[in-house]
Design goal:
Helix content is about 5%, strand content about 45%. By secondary structure, it is mainly beta. Among the domains are: about 150 residues, Jelly Rolls, CATH 2.60.120; about 90 residues, no CATH class; about 80 residues. Strands 1, 3, 4, 47, 50 and 52 form a six-stranded antiparallel β-sheet that branches. Strands 7-8-9-6-11-10 form a six-stranded antiparallel β-sheet. A six-stranded antiparallel barrel has the order 17-20-19-18-21-22. It is flat, with a radius of gyration of 30 Å.
Length: about 675
Amino acid sequence: MRKTPYFPLGGGLDLVTPITQMPEGRLIGGVNYEPWINGGYRRIFGYERFDGRPLASDAEWLVIDLDIETELEVGDTVTGDDSAATGVIVAIDGQRIVLTKITGDFDLEEPVNTDLAIITLIERNSGSTLEQQAAFRLAAEKEYRDDILQVPGVGPVRGVFQIRERIYAFRDNAESTACIPYKATATGWDATAITLSVTVRFDAGTVAIAAGDVLTGASSSATGTVHRVVLLRGSYGGGDASGYLALTDVTGAYTDGESLQVSAATRAVADGASLVSSLPPGGRYDFVATNLLAGADTYRLYGANGVGPAFEIDEDDVLTPILLDLSFGDAPSENNPFLVEEFDGALWLMFPGGSLQRSATGLPLTFNGFLGAAEFGLGEEGTGILSTAGKVLIAYTRRQIHGFFPSGPATYEKRLVSDRAGCVLYSAARLSTLYAVDDSGIIDLNRAERFGDFADATISDLVQPFIVANVNNVAGVMAIRESNQYRIYFTSGDALAGRMKPDGTAEFGVLEMTRTAFCAYSCEDENTAPSYWWAGESGFVYKAESGRNFDGDEIESTARLPFAHQGNPASRKRYRLAELEIEAERDVSLSCSYDLSFAGTETTTFNWRDRVVGGGGFYDRDNWDQIYWDAQTYTTARFELRGTGKNLSMLFYNASAVSEPFILQGITLHYDPRRVGR
């Protein structure tokens, strides 16, 4: 008698459960599917290069029929004689041309390029068939993609971050003598868009200098506008104030020992010659975007790189270094912090040796103990600092988790949260709680604080072999808010996507990125919407969760289901049909191969292919221009099964550079029971 059991897909990748005990909806292998928030597995979004110019995925195209065949070629620009509209040719088929980078609106029957006439204007972003529409889309995207360039320089892009509408990237120059900061602009990466301040150290300060003052060197006649004033020691009233000034619009060079004057009155003495700010080569950048001054226009970026001083980039794109006074007894031995965070109205920097430094409250550039700055020791190398929603600063080492609990103004009670769980460098991220990669797996801070023992705090048991193999290859992490996902990028080119469920458990999928990452970040744009960025050895900056492909390459996705026995591992079954539920935007082509009886030698692997068209909707619920009225709301792919065995494992495969993400939701299996195996 025919059996038709149904099982939903979900649970994520499972590398440890015994095969006969594994739930049918889990995965025993596969790439580029992520566990989805409403169940099932979603084929991931793509990533695409970025430098400030329009993204390839934003490309539109227009199909035009001409009165005669043209001698124009792909790449040529077409101009309407009457409308002055323009477009770049990306495809030609006889009298039909396809344009992108369109400006203005062409007129029907107007001459173009003088000797041709338009006889038909076809709707934008269209094609006669789905295949033709896909081809036109790819051609238009390529035209945009080819304009987008690498960050100038050599080696990996060492950092990239978005703060509101501003996006910055950092890469070593061609001579490897400095790391150059760039800003994304409408014409690409631009180093000149960032002003490197000139710094002058001072001592013997008697009268405060203010931002906006014009500073003159009494001997050198150098001048500059004061941008930042940082007091590190002493007081103006005592005549022994010392610190440094960050200047812009500097002419000349200040010299050691000369009087520093404002309006011809001496305010302090130069303690060394002036220096143009620069970032040393090497390192890997960590960032925090915050407003520590509480002004409407003081939301700024703070960075650290592990090879030189931390720095600030403000709303005017001025870079100011954070120069500590290393002569203090509790100062680090070198000014080379590698992690940065904001907490309790101050900037926190992690230095080598487990030295955690806090700035003065509301003064992120000022590390002056008399003004409230402080130093805390962790006892071993720090690997992460993050603040929590509960107003606690968490500081990680590789083996321990510490918490700094405010106990008064700029004072804290330091508690050991866990002495058996820690964090791999650059792996800590904040969602509803904090997550980090530890040698024992992925640690949930709430569970670590509650149980203390790493075995109870780990939420990645099902993918532990993958974590163990990659624990020392973490490039960076993202906290993807839309799906409550903690995503880890590895230097191997793989990534691990973990969806954090409300019950405290997690389910995972492996991503195969085709390019290797050196750093990865979660940011916010000018509308506080999340944005995600990563970069690596290629020199390109990539926007994650964007586009339909991997920077022009197809996304290959596979999902391998367990060897499911339908509740009876001993009996043989004659398998007939599998109906796969899919939620898709429009056009998805899937291949299915399957193995019987643990892929033993007495069975054969079969292949089947089906194509589904989705994107349908309901008349009274969905928007008119966002669904396809001739398509199903939910679609089913049917795969014929041929063979008899004790169990069945199916593998689904898709490769596409144009498909929107789609979701594999569940399977109805058709089979006939047979005898018990002998």
